[in-house]
User: What shape does this take?
Amino acid sequence: MDNILEMKNLSKHFGDFTAVKNVDFGVEEGGFFSILGSSGCGKTTLLRIIAGFQQESEGDVFIRGQSMKGIPPEKRPVNIVFQNLALFPMMNVRENVAFGLKRQKLKKADIDSKVNEMLERVGLNGYLNKKVTDLSGGQRQRVAIARSLVMNPSILLLDEPLGALDRKLREHMKVELKLLQKEIGTTFVYITHDQSEALVMSDKVAVMHAGQFEQIDTPRNLYKNPKTSFVAGFVGDANRFELQPKEGDSIITKGGWKLQKSDLNGTPEVLYIRPEALILNPSDRTEGVDHFEVTVKTILFDGSSTKLSTSVAEGDEELLISLPQNSQFDNIIEGRKLKVGVHRDDLKCF
Amino acid sequence: MKNRTGFNVTFYLLIVPVLIWLITLIVIPHAELFLSSFLVEDDLGDMIFSFGNYIQFFNQKIYWLTFVKTASYAIGVTILAFVIAFPIAFYLTKVTSKKNARFLILLLLIPLWVGELVTVYGWMILLGDNGIINHFLMFIGIINEPVNMLYTDFSMVVGLLYMSMIFMVIPVMSALESMDDSLIEAACDLGASKWAIFTKIIIPYSMPGITSGAIIVFMLVIGDYLAPNLLGGKSSLWFTEQIYNKFLSTFNWNEGAAFGFLLLMLSSGIIWIALKLSGQKLEKVGS
Assistant: This one.
C-alpha cells in the first residue's frame, strides 16, 4: 500500500537545540499511527511541522506524494485536534463544527447535513445548540474531533487529546477513538506520552526519543522485541540491570547476579526483564527456563498490576515480579522465599 | 469563624466607610441635584415644582443640537479609539515579548500621570499655528503656510482620543490575554483566512473587553470638559459646556442640574441601545 504521509530526513533546530533529528518514516493510508515519547522528545514539534504551523529546518513532508514545502496550514489536507481542544468558546456546538465548512463557502444545506451527520457519528446529535462551555470533558473531546473530521482530511493529527480527561473516561475514549477510526477509515496520526493509549489504539507506533525515532513497529512487537535499550525501558514495565563484562555463556549484573544467556553477540551493557515475564513456582521441566530464588520484601498491591518487590538470593539485586490476582498466590507474604523462573528469550540485553 | 460578635465588628468596620462614602458623596448630592432640577423660579421669585427645566432642553434647538453633536462625536471617538487601540492591544498581548509589553504599557500610562490639563496643553503646543507639527510640515515642504489645526473639531477629537484611548487598550488587552493562541491556530487549520480569523474568532472572543472599553471611553468622552473647551473651536460646543454655563455663567443651577441628569439618562440610553444592538449583556462585560 502507498504511504499517505512521508517524512524525508526531517530536522528542526531551535538555535543550538535540535528538536527533531533526521526523522524518516512513512504512514500507511487508513492506519492508526502513534508517536510515543516522553515530554520534550520533539513529538509535538513533529506534529506541528506536519500541520504546517512550524517550518522544518531540513528535509520535507509529503502528503499523498506531494511536497508540503511552503504550503500554509490552511491549505494542507490535514486537520489537527489540539491538546487543549481549542474549541471556540463563543460558538455553540453546531457553529464550531460548521466553522471549517463555512470557510469553504459551501451551501448552507450542505453544511447542515454534513454537520448533522458528523455529530451523529460521534454521538452528539442532541447537542447542536449547546454552548461548548456547557459540555462535559468527553463531549468537548468529541466536538473537537467532529470539527476536524467534518473537513474530510487526508490525515487527522491528534495532539494528546485525552490528556485532560480522568482515567475512566480516558479508557472509554481510547476504545471509542479506535472504533471511530476503523469506521471512517481516515488516517490518524496520534501523539502521546501515555504508552497505554499508544499500544491499545495503534496499528503502528513510533517510539521517539531525543528528536529521533528509536523504533517503528506494531504495538506487540515493540513490547515483545524492543530493538533498543530505550524502547525496552520505555514501553511497558521492566527491571533494569547494569551488566558486568560477560563470562562465556552467562551474564552477570553489577550486583553479582548470574544468568544463563547463550545467543549473545557483542558485549551487552544492560539487561531488561519484564515483571510479567517472571514465572512464580515454575515447573522443572519447561525448556529454556532458568530458576533462581528470591525473598519477598514487600507486596505492592495495585489491583491487576500488583507486584512483588523481592531481592535476588544470589547477588545484591532487587527484582519486581508481577503477582497475578487469581488467588493462586494469596499465600505469599513478606519475608517468604520463592522459586522464580525466567525464559531465556525474555532476557533482553543491549 | 463562628465568633458572631467578632464577625459583626469586622463587618461593620468594613461596611461603614463604604456607606459613608456612598451616601455623603454620591447619594446625597445626586438626590439634591435631582430635586433641584425640578424647581423653577416663578414670577414672584418663589421656587415651584415644574418640568420646565427639562422642557427647556427640548424646546431650545441649540441645547438638543449640542447634545446630538456631543453624542455623535462621542460615538465617533469611541469607534476611532477602538480602531487605534485594538492593534495596540493585539501587539502587546500576542506579538511582542512580555518584557517589551510591560515597558510599552508604562509608556501608554504616562499621559494619565501628568493629568488631562497638561496633556491638553501639550497638544496645544503641538497643533498650534506655530506648533511643532506645522513647522515640521513646512520644513519638509508639504505645505507652504501653517494649516489651522488648533481650535477645530480635529484638535478636539485628537485630545479626546488621546486621553481616553488607554481605557480601550486595557480591557481589550485583558480579553485578548485570556485567549489561547491555539484558537487562532485551530481556525487557521480549518482553512480560515486572516480576515476570517480576525472577524470570526478574535473580535467575537474579545467582544466583552471591547464592550467594556467602549462604555468607559464613551462615558469619559461625553462627560469631558477640558478637551472640548480648550482644544475645540467656537463651533465645537460640547454639552458639558452648556451645563457649565448654566451653573457658572447664568447661575441657573436648577436648569444645570436638569441638564446634568439629561446627560446621564441620554448617555445611559445610548449605551443600553448599543448593548442591545450588539447582542452583549452588561453582566458579561469585563468578565
About this structure: The mean pLDDT of chain A is 88. The domain at 237-349 of chain A is CATH 2.40.50.140 (OB fold (Dihydrolipoamide Acetyltransferase, E2P)). Chain A has two domains: 3-233, 237-349.
